[in-house]
Design brief:
The chain contains four helices and three strands, in the order H-E-H-E-H-H-E. It is mostly helical. A three-stranded mixed β-sheet has the order 2-1-3, with helices on one face. 15% of the residues are buried.
Length: 97
């Protein structure tokens, strides 16, 4: 299975759908032009497993009041979806839209 590439179209769908944050799996490729577009649109690209991802996720889950087992379950599911495994949606997950 090859690497997923985040395209301009993907980013525009998130933005025009009201999203402002995209979670990317570990091996997703983001071309320089798409990175520039994300900056100009104000869309954050967060790669799974980075400190920025963990900080954003912690804040979101805290705001939702998730703790203990619920918190572990969410982190486990995100690991399945974005950790580069076979299951789930590939490429990214829109947090806000």
């Amino acid at each position: 299975m090859g690497k997923r590439v985040l395209t301009r179209r993907d980013l525009e769908e998130v933005y025009y759908g009201g999203g402002r944050t995209v979670l990317l799996e570990r091996d997703c490729v983001v071309p320089p032009g798409v990175m520039d577009l994300a900056r100009s649109l104000g869309v954050r690209l967060l790669r799974f497993g980075t400190p920025q991802f963990e900080e954003a996720l912690g804040g979101m889950l805290s705001d939702m009041g998730l703790e203990g087992e619920a918190l572990k379950a969410v982190r486990s599911r995100l690991s399945e979806l974005l950790g580069g495994g076979d299951g789930g949606k590939k490429g990214g997950l829109d947090l806000e839209g």
